[in-house]
Amino acid sequence: MLNHLLTILTFLLLIAAVQMYNKPVEEGFRVLPSSPLQHININYCPQTYQTIQTAKGYTDCCSESMIDGKCPGKTFCTKSPTHDGVPTCIQAWRQYYTDHGKSKCPSTMPNYFEDVLNPRGRKGCSVSKTTPDGKAPSNPGQKQCTIYANEKDNYSKPDSCYIEKERLNTKCPVVGDQRPTAEPFILNNQFAAFQCRYRIEPSLPTDCIDDKSYTRYINTFTPSAISSLPALRDTKFCSTLLSRRQKAIEEQRRLAEEKRRREEAERKLKDAQNVINQLRDRLSGFLRRFRR
């Protein structure tokens, strides 16, 4: 009986140990038990963290100076084997790049890159995976975008990752079987708005400007032009495209109906003229016979 209880107790302790090992830790950066970016190989502390040697002999990355052999602040990672729920630095950085890729990168360029030791270095996203140090795309020839340090550049630079994410979220109006993809409209080397293009049809609008992106551009760069938005909305904005196309179609129908009525009236007039000419000819023939 005692052996049976010991077996059960040992089994329960093993389950508890596995659960503790797999429990996520959140200390400064979100760190999960595993990360898909297995190629990232960074084993140093964040620039704003200090390397400390704890009383237990672990080499940790701490947000503050060590007190009594412990980290009094947040522990980002350890250069030692994982301990007390603290991930290794390689694990932590892999999760850092994974999380930033999900939150900051467009789905067309999902791989985040950054030189974590250089705050002024370029940050961005790419089609190709990052180099093992995370600093750059592994294939510079593939498409990439930039995450700028200030909002204005993120809103205006043509290669901004923010603009690419917004492009993917911008839906063009559906016109019949046409479902175009939004395209950036560049004005004076700056992103101004997204535009939607449709196949050319006589007398019908064939493109439009996304309201939201263009309004943000006006508010950010040319607030004095805000008064022009109502007029532009009536002639160019995507929000009015369907109504403008409907009006154009109705106008086409009206003109076609006018043309049909005019042609019908002209035909009837011609027919009437032909009848009159025939009657005149008959009358002339009768008079000639009568005079004889």
Beta-strand percentage? 15-25%
Percentage of residues in helical conformation? 40-55%
User: What is the overall number of helices?
Assistant: 7
Rg from C-alpha positions? Answer: 37 Å
Q: In terms of structural class, how would the helical and strand content be classed?
A: alpha+beta
State the shape.
rod-shaped
Unreliable residue runs: 11-34
Biggest sheet record: 3 strands, antiparallel
Write down the secondary-structure element order: HEEEEEHEEEHHEEEHHH
Oligomeric category: single chain
Distance between the termini: 149 Å
Strand order of the largest sheet: 3-4-5
Task: Please state the average pLDDT score.
Answer: 82
Topology, number of strands: 11
What does the model show?
- The chain is of the alpha+beta class.
- Helices cover 41% and strands 16% of the residues.
- The chain has seven helices and eleven strands.
- The chain has helices at residues 2-22, 89-104, 151-156, 161-169, 211-221, 229-235, 241-291; strands spanning 25-27, 29-31, 50-53, 59-62, 75-78, 111-114, 123-126, 144-147, 183-187, 190-197, 207-209.
- A three-stranded antiparallel sheet has the order 3-4-5. It has a three-stranded antiparallel sheet with strand order 6-7-8.
- The longest helix is centred in the C-terminal third of the chain and has 51 residues, at 241-291.
- It is rod-shaped, with a radius of gyration of 37 Å.
- Mean pLDDT is 82; it is low at 11-34.
